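Re-run requested by the PI after the first attempt was lost when the workstation crashed. Everything re-entered from the original request form. Ligand of interest: adenosine-5'-triphosphate.
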Amino acid sequence: MSQPLLRVDNLSKTFHRRGHSVHAVQGVSFTIHAGETYALVGESGSGKSTTGRTILGLTPASGGTVEFDGVPLLTRNAAQWRSLRKDIQIIFQDPLSTLDPRRTVGYSIEEPLIIHGVKDANQRKKAVVEMLVQVGLNATDAGRYPQQFSGGQRQRIGIARALILRPKLIVCDEPVSALDVSIQSQILNLLMSLQREYGLAYLFISHDLNVVRHVADRVGVMYQGRIVEEGESGALFTQPQHEYTRYLLKAILPAEPVASAR
Ligand SMILES: Nc1ncnc2c1ncn2[C@@H]1O[C@H](COP(=O)(O)OP(=O)(O)OP(=O)(O)O)[C@@H](O)[C@H]1O
């Protein structure tokens, strides 16, 4: 098989807080190939978000290595990070946390282009309109403010902002868990169609196995900071090997599809 797009090897993160240590991530290793969706699942506190944030350099790692396109990430300086961050973007559960309420949606989507030195304002505006349409919004929405949109529409804006730099990998941190089930399926379908169109890879972080089973190619099950089981999505859901995976599967309702299967 070709070289992975992302290789995470023995990653660890320990937080020190008021005299005690929290081993949030302990020796986590996995790979993601171009165009693939790799999901990290597990209950709250299992270390999923910390893994994602550490890969992105938003949280410094305590140990381990991360390679993106064969280039080591964790040892990079700020300038090197910035050039690489073009290729790795993130979508959060609550897009309002990244969308400035005083800025128009058009500006929020355009901003990454400004940060990454696209000087031609007309080119930037054209890209924003294309992006809005691509995520199912209207060109006129560029002049509106985040508070004027529903949760699902705001997630579409977050996706447009993440996608405008044409990244190779998007870390999706609980991207649909704040949304109603009917809206969840729309957003998941949008993510999957964008993946097909742009060959995107996703690191998909979710506590919801019903969501994961419809989007993931491979799944890593996290428990207390470690990946306790990893496998192809189909096999993991039908023949779980680890006791904790079986426990998680028991806790979900019988297959209620939230999105069209791949
Ligand atoms: N900045 C921080 N300082 C101290 N401890 C932290 C910090 N961030 C996370 N933790 C701890 O690390 C552990 C893993 O948290 P993390 O958020 O990565 O889990 P998670 O699986 O993503 O869960 P959730 O979905 O609830 O965010 C938890 O015990 C959490 O309290």
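Saved to the shared folder this time. The chain has a mean pLDDT of 91.
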